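hiii, so i know i said id send this last week but things got crazy w the move. better late than never?? heres the sequnce for the chain we talked about at the cafe, plus the structure i predicted for it. fair warning i was half asleep when i ran it
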Amino acid sequence: MSDTQQPQVRLARPDDYDEVAALSLRAYELDYEISDGYRASILAVGDRAAEHEVWVAADAATGALLGSVATPRPGRTISPLAEPGELDFRLLAVDPSARGRGVGALLTRHVIELARQRGLDRVVMNSGPQMVGAHALYEKLGFTRLTDREREIVDGGRTFRLLAFTIDVHAGAEAGRDELGVAS
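okay and structure toks below
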């Protein structure tokens, strides 16, 4: 994939929110059984963008949205997981029609780069135990489990262990190239 074909990462605009919600819901519902509460959280893009940053990966040629991820604004957190010196992220989603194009890796590397630019040491995030495809991506990028911060949660009447992952920002910069040679 040449640089001209590389999706562009930018902040979501208000006119993107409905599309971000729809693509995120397609991404999560394709592979996972999600609760009504989690569905509502996925769909609340406008509320999330009012408080945090919602990033999108847009096709460079068409402008079509391919994926999304949410990060906190500088100096804040988006989940209870993050501690001082860490950047957390949530709701990484790649539209099913865009899978296999490196969009998830691109967005995750963007988060790592944001942490580096903000002078933070680590990126942390939670993931459900069933999200094994995402776990494989995180492992490929150099994330490791952060088991001491994992916790049991109840969602939709089901109890499960919410997994935690981390990467040192400097290690993430070293792992910033994938098989396509895309720099972080």
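btw The first helix runs from residue 17 to 31. thought thatd interest u
miss u guys!!
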